[in-house]
Amino acid sequence: MRIACPFCGERELGEFTYLGDAAPKRPMAFAADGAEQPEAQDLFFDYVYLRDNVAGDMTERWYHGGGCRSWLTVTRNTTTHEIKAVHAAPGAGAQKRTKAGATS
Amino acid sequence: MAEYSWEVRSPLRNAFAPGRLGLASGDAGIALAEISDFSLVQVMARRGQVANVAKAAKKAWGVLPPEKPAAVVGKDATLIWTGPDQFFVLTAGSVPDPVPPLAVIFGGAASLSDQSGGRCLIRLSGSKVREALAKVSSVDLHDTVFPVGAAAATSIDHTGVNLWRGPDAADGHPAYSLLVFTSFADSLWHTLADAAAEYGVEATRTPLS
Amino acid sequence: MSRTSQISGDAAPLAFNDNPAADSRQPRSISTGTQSHRLSSGGQIDRKQPLGFTFDGKKMVGFAGDTLASALVANGIKLVGRSFKYHRPRGILTAGAEEPNALVELRGGARREPNTRATTTELYDGLAAESQNRWPSLRHDVMAVNSLFSPIFVAGFYYKTFMWPAKLWEKLYEPAIRRAAGLGKASGAADPDHYEKAWAHCDVLVVGSGPSGLAAALAAGRAGARVILAEEDSRLGGRLLSENGEIDGKPVAEWLAGAQREIAALANIRVMTRTAVFGVYDGGTYGAIERVNDHVPVPPAHQPRQRLWRIVAKHAVVAAGAIERPLVFPGNDRPGVMMASAVRSYINRFAAMPGRQVALFTNNDDGWRTAEAVQRAGGAVAAVIDSRGAAPERYRGLSAKLLGGVVSAVNGGVDCVRSIVVRDAGGRTQQIETDCLAMSGGWNPNVALSSFHRGRPVWRDDIAAFAPGQCPPGMVMVGAASGDFSLAACLREGHAAGEDAAKACGAKGKAGEAPKGDDEVFAIKPLWHVEGGKAFVDFQHDVTASDVKLAQREGFESVEHLKRYTTLGMATDQGKLSNVNGLALMAEATGRSIGDTGTTIYRPPYAPVAIGALAGHHRDENFHAWRLTPSHHWAAERGAVFVDTGLWKRAQWYPIDGEKDWLESVTREVLAVRNGVGFCDVSTLGKVDVRGPDAGIFLDRLYINTFSNLAVGKARYGLMLREDGLVYDDGTTSRLAEDHYFLTTTTAKAGPAMQHLEYCRQVLWPELDVQLTSVTDQWAQFSIAGPNTRDLLKNLCDPSEDLSNEGFPFMGVREVSLRGGMRARLYRISFSGEMAFEIGVPARYGEAMAENLMRAGAEFGVTPYGTEALGVMRIEKGHVAGPELNGTTTADDLGLGKMMSKKKDYIGRAMAGREALTAPDRQVVVGIKPVNKTNRLRSGAHIIPKGAAPGPETDQGYLTSVCYSPMLGHWIALALVERGRERHGEIVRAYDPLRGEDMDVEITSPVFYDPEGGRQRG
Question: What Pfam families does this protein's entry cite (chain B) (predicted)?
Fold first, then answer.
C-alpha cells in the first residue's frame, strides 16, 4: 500500500504506522477546575473502546513516523484498500489553531 | 590534576576504513564518504510564526527556508526540510553549542534544538549510486522526480533519515547526502557498504566545506 | 505466401545430429556425442559454446542457450523424475515455468536447491542435477510399488485410513507418509550466497516480452514514458522465440532483433530479464524476483544470487501470455508425452527434437502448428489425432496422417512412449507407433496477476478458457493473457495499451504504428476427459480425473473444497496446468457450467520465491539494524559484555580477569557503586525536547502529575497513563528554561512515546504552541552514582561549580562547565538510591566523557557498570521498570497512586477511575524475600497462599523482577501480589512449576535498601 503524505508525497506503507478509526473525538469530560463530570467514564469508555467495524470507506489515523512525523487522516476503503483522501492532522506543522482545530 | 580533553569521536570510528571496499577491480562505482565537522540545528517554527521564521532565515542566509521537501543552499548554510514548518540548518565547522547564534537569528519565532551530535552525515555518489541506493531506499531518485535540491524525510532499514541531492559530483555523477541518527550510523554504514559492494566502493572522510 | 507453401518450399530438410564428428565447428576437447536429438542447425543456441553437465551423475553436453530441460531433450533423456504420490515415472512436460514434472535438485553442498524446474534452469558448464523422490535410482524406484496400489491411494485416502488411533497420526503415519511422498531435500546448511531487495519505479511496467509485451514497451517507450520491461526468461521474445511466422512482413526472428535494438536505444526503457513478476500489491506495487546469478555455478564476488524487486508502477501492461492446457486421457503422464507448444519450443528455440516419430493429439487449431514445426525441422509426424475429426483449413496442405478421435492409451516403458492407441467415435481402435506424443488441450490465459486482488476470471466459451475479470487499478491485460491469441491481436492490443498507459502518465511523444502480424483464428472444441484408464489432471500431485469425480461424489463440490480434498493445484506449479481441467471435470460431474463452477482464489506468488530473497540483506548479523551507545566502542575495548535491548546493544557488565561468572562481575559492580562510585551509560533512554510557550500545559495533560509548576532548574519524576487508565511509561523530566522541558522516556518506549506525544500535539491539542524533537541521539548521558560521586564531579567540573547540597540540591538541574573546556548538563537524579547525578554532553563527546569519568574517579576506584548492576540497584530500591510497567498495572498498583492529580484532565484520568482498576484486591508491587536465605528466587514464580493447592483460583500474583542483592546477601524480588500492601510480613509460597520449585517467601516492602532515602539526598 502507498499513502500520499500531504507533505512528502506518495510513500510506501513501511514508513507509516496505523492507529485506527479517526472518528472518535476525545471527550471534554472535566470542568475547568479539573473536577470530573458524572458522565466522564461513559464518554471515555465509548472513546477508548467502541469502534464501528466498517466495510467500506473509513477515516483512519496514520502516522508518518518514517518520514516527516506528521499525523494524517486517511480515508480508505477497508475492502479494496483504495485511498480516497489524505489530510494532515489539524496540529501538524505550525499553523495557529483554536481548540476546534480551525485556523485562527 | 589530570588533563581533561574533549576529543570528538565519530560514530563510524569502527565501521569506517578508508579505501576500497567490495569489488576490487575497475573503477569504484560508489564513493562513500563520511562528512565530518558540521553543526546541525533543528528549527521548528512556533505556531503562527512561519512567516517570521522565513524572514529571519532570508536575512541570515539569503534564502527562504524550504516549504516542501528540498535542500536550499544559502550563504554559509544549507537548509534542509525535515517536516512541515521545520528544517535543519547545516553549517560547516563543529562548535560545542551552535544554538545561541541561531537563537539570535530567530528570536522567539522558532524552537531550536542542537542535533550536531544526534546525526551522522554520509554522502554517496558515483556511477552506480542510484543502483546502490535502490537497495536501501524506497524513494524514487530518478532525475525527473528527485533533481538537484530535492530532499526527503524517509526511512532506510527502518531508520529515519534525511536524504537530499546536492550538486552533482565533480565527475558528473549525482551526489546524495544522508543524515542518520548517530546511534544507527554504524549499522547503516555497513548496510550501505554491503549494498554498494558489487560496484566497488571508495570510502573517504572529509570535513563539511 | 501461405504457411503451407513455406513448409514445402522454403524449409530445407534438417538432419539429426547423429554424427557429431561430422560437425567440424565443435572444439575437440569436448564431445557432443550424447546429443542424439540435437538438430544440426537452427535454434537460438550457440553450437560453438558446448557446456558439460551431469544428470544423476551421467555426463552430457549441451550448448549455451540451452535450458537444462532442452539439453536433456537434446540428449534423448525422457525420464526425469518421479511423481509425488505414486512415484510414477515422469518426463519433461513443458518448456516453461509451469513445469510440474522435471523438478531436480540443483548444485550440491550448502547450495543444494531442491524442486528446481529444469525447464527454467539455464544450462551452465559444470551444472550437476539430480532427480528427486526416487530410491535407489530414477529407473528403479522401490516406492513405485505405490503405483500398484493406486486404486486405493485415491484422494483423501490417508485421512480415511489413518484416522485411528488419532494420536498416531502425528507421530507415525504422517512422518511415514511424508517420507514416501516427497520432493527434493534442502541442504540443511546455511545458504552461502546472499540475496537482496531493491526498489524500482516507473510509469509503465510491462510484464512479459512476447509480441504483446514488446509492442507495449515500444509504444510506451517511444511516447516517452519511463518503462520497465520485465521478462522471466533470460532473453526477450516470449513465444516468438518458439514460433514461426512474420511480423511487419519479416520473419519473427528478424523483427525481434529489430525490436530489441530499438528498445536498447531508448534510454527510458529499462529491461529486466530473468525477472518474474510474482505479485501485485496495493497502490501499484509489484513484486518481482530477479534470478541474478542462478545461471552460473557460484555468483561472482559481492553479487547476489537473487534480488527481490518492489516495482512501483503508475500503470501496468500485463502481457503474461497463456499456458497450454494438457489433455486428460489414459496414459497422459508417460515420459514422452509433452505439451505441443513445448515440442515447438524444443524444436524451434533449442534445436532439439523430442521424438523421431512425433504424434499430435489436439482439440484445437493451434496444436497443428506443432505438426508443422516438426515437419519444417525435418522430423517425422506419425499422426495427428484431432478430436474434432477434421484438419483446420490452413493445415490441410500438411502431409500428415490425420485421425479423428482420441488417444485412449499410451504404451511404452518406464522412460519412453512406444505407441499410442487411437479410438474413433465408433469405438474402433488402432495403434500408432510414436516416441513422442504432443498434446494440446487449448490455452489458458495467464490471468494470475489480474486475479490477485480478488478479480474473478470470466469463462469464455469461444476460447474454452477463463479470461481476466476485473483487474487491479492501473493494470490492463493484453494479448494472449487477455484471451486474444492471434499474433495480430497481441501486437495490436499491446501497442494500444502501451500507448494509452504512457499518455495517462503524461507522456507526449508519438507511439508509432502497431506492428502487424497474422490474424489467425483460434478454433477449439473442448475435450475434457478421455475415459478408459488413469488420466492425470495434476501431474505433480498425482490427481486423476477419477479423484475429481470421487471428490464430487463425497460432497466436496466447491472448488475450494476440491482443491483441498484432492490437493489439485497445490503442488509447486500451483495448478498452472491442472486447475482448469479439474474445474471442467467438476463442472461435468455436477452438471454446472464451468463459469458457474468458478475458480479458486488466486494468491501470490505466481512464481516460487526463495525465503532467502524475501529476507534479503536481513539475515545473520544483519537480521535487524543495531544502535550503539556513545560509549559503545570504549566499552567494547574494555571487554564489556553486551545485551540486545530492542535495537540497542548495551553494556551488560564489564568482566575483569579472574571473575568466574556474570554474578561475580555484577556483584562487584554494585558494591563498587554502593561503597564508592561508578558510572553507567544511560543514553538509550528516550529524550525529547519539549519547547514552546505551552510546553508546561502540554505536559500537564500528558502526565498524571503536574509539570507546569516545576521550577526552571528542577527535575521531576513523571508517570504517563494510556487512555484506558493503565500505566504507559515513566521518566524524569527537567525544566531547562521557561519554554523548554527535557523529557525522558524508558529505553523501550522511546519510539512509541514520541509517536504518542506527536499525536497529542497534532491531533488532540492542536491549539497548544509546543514543538517536539527527539534528542535521544544528541545527548550522551551517564549516570554517576555512589557516595564518592560528588568527589568525582569536583575533579571533573570547573572549580567554580558549587556541587554542595545547597548549591546543587536533590532534583536540581543546570548546565555546568567542565575542565578542559566543555559544557554539560548535570541532573541530580538517582535510580540507584545512591548519591547520584546524570551528566549529559553532545554524543560526539560521549566517549571522551567516559574516559574523563575514569580519569576524574581514578582516585576513588571508579567502576563502570552495566545494565545488570543498574537493574540490581533499582530492585534493591524498589524502583519499578519494564517488568512492572507491563501494560496491566495502574499507577496505584505501582505505589504511585498519590501522584494522580485531581485538579486537571490528563490522558487516562477518567478510565483510571474504573471500578476494576481501583478494586482493593488488585495485585500491587511488593518486595519478596526467601525465608531460607540460600534459596534463589525465580522471576515468573507464582505467589500461592501457604496450604493452598496451586491453581488459577489460588494464584495471587507473581515475581516480576528478581536479583541477587549484594547488599542483603541473598536473593530478592519485586512482585505483583493481591492486596500486597496490607500483607507485608506474611509468608506465602513462590511456586514455579516450570522449574519444579516451591519455596516459602516473605512479603515485604519493595524498598529493600535505604528505605529512608538518606543516601540519595546525601
Answer: SoxG
